[in-house]
Design a protein that fits this description.
Length: 239
């Protein structure tokens, strides 16, 4: 099988930014697939590899933790490890995941624990271990691994050089910025979206798809599968 571009940075290290950058470069990207957690918890990686096969680029979970299996299944792939300051990573993870007081199957697989709250130090050590293990795994193949700290604002240069691609004229993306860095207009749009009833939001997405417009929320080809999986494990009070 031919090689892929696989972003294996841990979540909250700029995985969406990398996905958007690859889309800008012309790749069809598959993002997080939390619905694969049950198969992975049972030790079965074949389903994940089957899901990954049609896509030239991957990012987020479970792909970051399956880099060994993906390397074997898709020879000559290029791997991108995104990293960030460890304190910043933990703060971002707590902000994003810390209020989830229910077990998350994909976290059970990644960490051995389904909740971040109360397990912060354990989660941080898993993040540190992942980065060390990836560097060690590719230590004798530096041409197959690019390490990027997006907090350093590297721009298109290192990524395009790694992929032997021309630099786009568009600015390098900055996806999912911290709420503290959002401009007023974007904060207002997010607030209005939250206040819009869910049936109306779904109807809007349905109409946009029927009209042939690209739907930003499903740009990583994973929304339907993830929504179905979350509906199974979310507490009834959170659905």
């Amino acid at each position: 099988m031919t090689g892929k571009v696989i972003c294996i940075g841990w979540h909250k290290t700029g995985t969406s930014t990398m996905g958007d950058a690859l889309i800008e470069l012309g790749y069809d990207v598959l993002g997080a697939r939390v619905d694969l957690a049950e198969e992975l918890l049972n030790g079965n990686t074949s389903k994940a590899l089957e899901v990954a096969a049609p896509f030239p680029a991957l990012q987020d979970v479970p792909w970051n933790a399956l880099y060994r299996e993906l390397d074997l299944a898709f020879p000559d792939s290029k791997f991108i490890l995104t990293i960030r300051n460890e304190d910043n990573w933990l703060k971002s993870a707590i902000r994003h995941f810390g209020d989830r007081e229910y077990d998350t199957p994909i976290f059970q697989w990644l960490y051995g624990k389904g909740r971040l709250r109360g397990n912060e130090e354990f989660f941080l050590k898993r993040y540190q271990a992942h980065n060390m293990e990836v560097r060690d795994y590719f230590s004798d193949r530096p041409d197959n691994l690019l390490v990027l700290n997006l907090e350093d604002n590297p721009g298109w240069g290192p990524l395009c050089a790694f992929l032997d691609a021309s630099e786009p004229s568009a600015p390098f993306p900055h996806s999912n910025p911290s709420p503290y860095r959002l401009g007023f207009a974007l904060k207002l749009r997010r607030l209005l979206a939250k206040l819009t009833p869910l049936p109306l939001r779904r109807l809007r997405l349905f109409i946009l798809k029927k009209l042939g417009y690209a739907v930003q929320i499903d740009r990583f080809n994973n929304r339907t599968a993830n929504s179905a999986a979350r509906a199974r494990y979310l507490p009834k009070s959170r659905k």
